[in-house]
## 1
Amino acid sequence: MAAELFLKDGGDGAGLGRPFEGKGAPRTLDRHSTGWYRVLEATKKICVLGDPAVGKTSVIRRYALDCFDEGYLTTIGARVLNRTQVLRFPGQSAELRLHLKIWEISGQNRHLELYPSYYLGAEGAIIVGDATRVETQVNLWKWIEGFRAAAGRVPIILVVNKTDLMDETEFDLELMDEISHEFRCPFRMSSARNGANVDNVFRELAYQLAGRKPLSGPRRGRAC
Ligand SMILES: Nc1nc2c(ncn2[C@@H]2O[C@H](COP(=O)(O)OP(=O)(O)OP(=O)(O)O)[C@@H](O)[C@H]2O)c(=O)[nH]1
Ligand SMILES: [Mg+2]
């Protein structure tokens, strides 16, 4: 059962995401019963992209390190942070540990020719807009198209960040519904500052990478 669960997603023999199986397979005592359950592991590259200063670094830092910095230091090129997301599936005696390699791609557009090489091999993306700047939501369009051209039709979640800045919000729900519908990817709202919905978004993408729905979905609307 557990191997089948894994093979749905990554059993292509390409090296990335191969399950631990056989004699050396790690096993852990199930906390909820007297039985044992299998621990599967996989590594996935995901990209986080979007316009400058929308909060890509901040969202990743909130998820990977649980911290937030008011200062703004633009990201040059691309940088990578890691976090392992544990996924559990009801009724199955297995847990999947997804080692996420989270690539932040600079929003600065200085070296556009490099972008396809950053996207290559990505199995999912979080594309971020800023709740206080509607043009960053309009630009999601071009980020999605650029990403899909290089990475193919892999899961994408659109995120409108900075929902803690309620007074300055320039949020266009109709536009977001349109983009979401056009590209068939869900959109969520988050705040890296107070942490609202950030974990949920990464968890939702991780479940999508595993070909599954999360046990409980993230909130769609306002995140704070
Ligand atoms: N209030 C508020 N500020 C945020 C939030 N997320 C990020 N910021 C601030 O917005 C600014 C830009 O954040 P970054 O995370 O550096 O933005 P970025 O998208 O990585 O920018 P580039 O690397 O230049 O593409 C910083 O001053 C952050 O502190 C948020 O959820 N709420
Ligand atoms: Mg950055």
## 2
Amino acid sequence: MSDQEHRSRVQRVFHKSMRVVLEPLISAETEGIDMVGSNGDVRKVFPILCSYIADYPEQCLVTCTKYGTCPKCQAKAKDLQEPTPGERRTPSWTKSIILEAKRKMSESNNNVKVFHNHCMDHEVSGSVYEPFWAKFPLCNIHQAIMFYTNYIKVSSSTSSAGSRLS
Ligand SMILES: [Zn+2]
């Protein structure tokens, strides 16, 4: 196995693992969950994956961004010194690049190099077929990503809706 293939597999294992760990949050985000507040009242809350704190390499891994480019905008590496940012990256944009790369890969007899090259041409990591955040309807991973601290890795915020349940 080449170093490139090894790195790609590590990235895919990360995304598959995160998908398993965070899967319960998807239904919580869409259907809500009951939580007891500090005063004892039970309220329906909708936790949203809204911040993910990581250093730069992990930001690229999490957002499926080509290493050396910006996890938040579509600026090419050569344009990163420009005073204005590029067009924002969005989850739907990133997923569309990956989807098109998968289509091209399947047309080329499942040549993973075709997938890799299409993604890299668009400043997207050429390793991940399905980002863990792809099924979170309200998560914008490119906005959620933040600089690293030593204390928190993943957090979510909650918003309460509706009336008290008890
Ligand atoms: Zn940027």
## 3
Amino acid sequence: MDKSPGYQSCKFTAIDGEESKTRPIPNNGQRLKDPSFEGEAEEWNFRGAARLSRWQRFNGDQSLEIGAPGGSAKQWVHLKEKTLYRLRCVVKGELDMLVGSKNAVYAENLKNTDPIEGSSWRSQEVDFWNKDRGSYEISLKASPKNAGRVFVDSCTIYKSTEVPPFVGSEKVQASR
Ligand SMILES: [Ca+2]
């Protein structure tokens, strides 16, 4: 290994791998700040029974814990016009993920998940076509119908053309 000054090894790695649990998620091309809920500069806005937790984690040292009912974590992101995006989180429990503005929901995934091989966590994603350039609110919620609490980690938003192969299902395709 080259140890000369200025050398930096590549940190990019599959975030679903066992070896990667202490590695940061690469931020290149990814829209959400603090995607791994490591408490970086308080990027998420918590309401109700939502907090950072060290008890459960998929990636890094912490995850988001939402105690039902009614807790949420929200963040505004800037999205480009006429672009297909994927919002994806890794979850334990029942989560509602929504993309919207103050008054409207443009895309959502209510509790639909897929298994992650070799893990007790599950993958939750929503692919959506964004029509207009602007700021959109990403909401992660435990709805009143949910029983118990939900843990969330590794939340990312990638353009369809930049989704790494380990982030969710194979094909990026908006359902509507
Ligand atoms: Ca984390």
## 4
Amino acid sequence: MIHSLGKKFACRITRLPFATSSRNRRLGGRVNHKSESRLEMSKKQTATKMMPGAEVILKVMEAEGVEVIFGYPGGAVLPIYDALFKNNSIRHILVRHEQAAVHAAEGYARSTGRVGVVLVTSGPGATNAVTGLTDALMDSVPIICLTGQVPSHLIGTDAFQEADTSGITRPCTKYNYLVKKSVQLQANIEEAFHVARSGRPGPVVLDLPKDIQLLDAPFIETNGKEKAEHRYQPITKPDPAAIKEVVKMMKQAKKPVIYGGGGLINSGPHASEALRKLVSKTGWPTTLTLMGLGAVDADDRHFLGMLGMHGTYQANLAMHNCDLMLNFGARFDDRVTGRLSDFAPFSKKVHADIDPSSINKVVNVDLGIIGDVGEILNSLLEEMDAQSFRRDEKAMSRWWEQIESWRARDCLAFEETGTIIKPQKSIQRLYEITKGTDIYVTTEVGQHQMWAAQYFGFHQPNRWMTSGGLGTMGYGLPAAVGVQIAHPEATVIDISGEASFLMNMQELSTISQYNLPLKIFILNNEWMGMVRQWQELNHGKRYSESYSASLPDFVKLAETFGMLGLRASSADELDNVIAEMLATDGPVIADIRVEKEENCFPMIPSGAAHHEMLLGPEDKASKAVSEEGKVLV
Ligand SMILES: Cc1ncc(C[n+]2csc(CCOP(=O)(O)OP(=O)(O)O)c2C)c(N)n1
Ligand SMILES: [Mg+2]
């Protein structure tokens, strides 16, 4: 059962603008009512302490297990900063831009499975956070963002540094609150954490007027026992009838494919574990989206590689030709499906997802299963035993034979000429040299991101942090800050492009301040390479404004921040630079001068289908981008 409010959340209300205009007021009223009555009840049972709102905020966060906040101060949050000054248990990491605070919190959240917390001031502090919040919404990352607000009596007067934060962030958060009464404060924060981390995770904003931070507010010691009475109860347990039905479909399959997405990572390590069991029990070919990498071991022979626009030949052709597709926690993103009318045209489709609004949103499926993808997988494994599932050995050997013939095309092979460093080679060597160590990788956005996804193998979940949905240049460096804060001993590498790096390079100062030993591995092609590639393929090689001019000397830049700067300009220097970078205790920027005009293949051109992919430059002429394709992003 899901009650009506739960349903609303489950539908990601932020995606229904017509339903959201009065959302806060309406739901805020209900929160007041509940929290006040809870307070009344609790007063009888528990000691209620009165303290300034700012202290209540930190107390509740402590109870929620928050250890780190990424933030940037300003007038409207000074009471919280003052409370932090006196607080010994929560660590504050001072970033250099509020966008970076959110990306850092995302890196922290995605590499730990915990909620990432952000603290920014009103007005420009909050508006600077908007890109990060949108990024977190698109990639379903649990974030709490505390924004300062002008005092209640000045709201609506165009006061200094006033912005309508709840209005601005309504479409880019899973939920948001403007806290209007001190008595609501604790319940609002507790509920915000619950909303951020439950169901399909996402960012939640708490807009906190300065008077609410200063005035005394009640705090009820919860000790983790007495939690807010949460109104949002997403479905986690799958419908047993649906599970029975999937197993029946599985028994019929001759050409099945398992297709997993970011939901597997969000669900927690148990989901990846269950997926691995399913893969070994069925022996079925498995592909993952950009967001799902690491859910199965890249070395597992059942893994076909990533699918989609820059996915492998074998993964995309298996999708195109399959007769049963089992989608676990992926959302049929357009980067994955290609032309929808020709997407896996011969298949029955099953879609398992925590978010009911995802089912039949983009692709109509034969069976939708709502629930936590880890629970769905475990129920499925049990039901397979109950129905004595046996894989169809004959059909499977035929199917694998066909898949292996596609795999034999070796679609990720690349040519090496002379002493130039091929970008693919630089990632391949980075992977090979670090293999066997527990490593966390973030990326920026562009060709280097796709090459990282193609050539770096992930063996565990939560090791790969990239901006998938929004495709945010400038994500990787601050995200790496968050990952390194969460895993101080681990090797953390931001695989970057020179243009993306410039988007949030102010975070070098943060890295330097906390002496974070992260490694920035820049594939420097002196181009916004992905833009250049599209201009080459779709716009008659008119390279309008895509050249990365006036780049800094990255080695000297590193030195000004007290870091080590390294450069590899020819293929014979590559391994030594990687080795020195990894052997260095502190932060390093490695400027890898790669082939400037290399294109990223394989590629499904926009508007094309999986079986129409380009395998290399020689494919271009015969498979030009269609007129409908040109309109797509
Ligand atoms: C904030 C933002 N602005 C613009 C874009 C569009 N865009 C996508 S890739 C790209 C070029 C990235 O260049 P670089 O970081 O050097 O990576 P490369 O493709 O060369 O590896 C641009 C401009 C984007 N994704 N994000
Ligand atoms: Mg570049």
